[in-house]
Structure prediction request, 438 residues.
Amino acid sequence: MSRTYALRTILVWALLELLAALQVPAGGGGTVLFSWLRTLIEPVAIVAQGTVDLAVDLGLGARGLQRAMAENRETRIALETLRARQLLLQADLAALREIGDFAGPHGEFDAGALVGRCTYRDLVVGTMEVRTARSYHLAHDTPVVSADGLVGRVMRSEGRRHWLQLLTHAAAAVAVQTDDSLVHGLALGTGSNALTIAYVPRQAALERGALLVTSGGDGIYPPGIPVARVTRIRESDEPFLEVTAFSAADLHAARMVLFLPEWAPAASRGLP
Amino acid sequence: MRFKIAIFAAVTLVLQRVLGMPGMPAWLSHLILPMIWIVAASLIRKERHWPYEALLLGLAWDLLFGPVVGPGGIAWTAACLSLYGLASVVADRSPRAWAAFGAVGTVIVVLVQRLAVMPLGLASSLTFSQLAWSAILTGLWCGFVGTILALDLGKHLRAYQVRKLR
Prediction:
């Protein structure tokens, strides 16, 4: 029996069986053939339905996960924003405290003083950028102080941004004196936090820890502002003492500074 | 010739119907008269092709005697194919071979038909005695036809007519 012969036989027999199944009614309605087809198709349909349900569930799960991740990301961003705001508020609070401190030593300048916020500083170069709330044009050499003491002077002013030359700048010089006005000198910037007090006579009664304030002799800074505290005194062959001091103002940590635009050297002439 | 065979086959089917009519002896319903056609096809025919005649015979059987059309076609083609195979290995063409082929064909038809209707839920009980009676009676019927053919009554009739004319 050839292969074609067998295939034809099987095909004819299968068709005849299907023909017979089409004629026999099944118990649940329809015919036996339909029940056979249902039996064949039902598992496939169940699997397909399950697959579709699984795919839908996976899709919903993935969407939910994506939404949750997005919400988590937004929450984290909001949290970071709140933390940043908290830090800014802490900085603002500290700055406000510093501003409150200005009322003590510089109360006499409060009337025309402007408050500025330090946004950038380079202590190596000896410069600082300060911003004010509103635009001002500050004159060159306008003195700038902090709650602890003298900071420097204005070198350039443009709108809300103002650039300062710190008293530690290598080219900076401030006329200083002791509290009792017995010892005078010139505080020179060195490019570091230390200042060199020049032109202090050898016979001057100066001790370590003495506070030096502006004398007003330079015609730039008003008198009486703390400048530096003496840290080292050394005698040499020179006619003057070698005096080293550190600035009274903490230039590392100062957030807020005070511009003194109202002060004029001419007005200071009348002061002692 | 084919038309004549078809007429004779139809006659055997009608006679089969008659054998099952009320009033006839019960054992006659075990006899399968159309079996002679597939036995003859397997023992006489030289060229064999796929048994479409057996298929038609089986479908006709289903139309007349079965609950559904289809299983008869399977059973009769299966029997015909089996007898084709058997005839290719058995050289005997005597009336005894006709009887044996008829019995074998009957067994195959009955069993295959029961198998074919089993998935449909229509299979009825079948006892060995029923199967044996069918095989014996149908075998005898086929053997009788084989004997008639072996006796070649037509030749004797023509010889008798020739003698009578003298």
Notes: Chain A touches chain B through 15 residues (CB under 8 Å). The CA atoms of residues 216 and 223 of chain A lie 4 Å apart. The mean pLDDT of chain A is 86. Residues 32-102 of chain A form the longest helix (71 residues).
